[in-house]
Specification:
Layout lengths: L1 H22 L2 E2 H11 L8 H13 L3 E7 L5 E7 L1 H25 L11
Antiparallel strand pairs: 1-3, 2-3
């Protein structure tokens, strides 16, 4: 289970940027629910990891935020993908696909025939 948690921590930035790229501006709870639903409830980011990731991406210039009135008393904070965030998403996806391909390659390797031990 801890491996899944570590993977989720490392993937939250990429997933948030991806949702903003595909969906457009979203508020925090909306982002978490879109990821949760699209992953069939496997990826469920708690508030304790979601908002720090969003704040870090704001600090890095990948996203920006703005407030919008939703009803009489409710104000939602929406997040907007910036051009730097699009470039960061491209980098993260490239790293993810390269890492995933390398892991697949190792998992498909038949080590019983490996001659490196000799």
């Amino acid at each position: 289970m801890s491996t899944q948690i570590n993977f989720k921590k490392g993937s939250i930035e990429m997933l948030l940027l991806h949702v903003l790229d595909c969906r457009g501006d979203c508020y925090g709870y909306q982002l978490s629910q879109l990821i949760k639903r699209s992953s069939e409830n496997i990826l469920d980011f708690p508030v304790g990891s979601l908002y720090p990731a969003l704040y870090k991406m704001i600090d890095n210039g990948y996203i920006s935020d703005y407030r919008q009135q939703a009803g009489k008393r409710l104000v939602r904070v929406y997040y907007h993908l910036e051009e730097a965030g699009k470039m960061r998403l491209k980098e993260l996806k490239q790293e993810y696909y390269a890492t995933n391909a390398s892991i697949q390659q190792v998992l498909n390797c038949d080590f019983s025939e490996d001659k490196l031990d000799e």
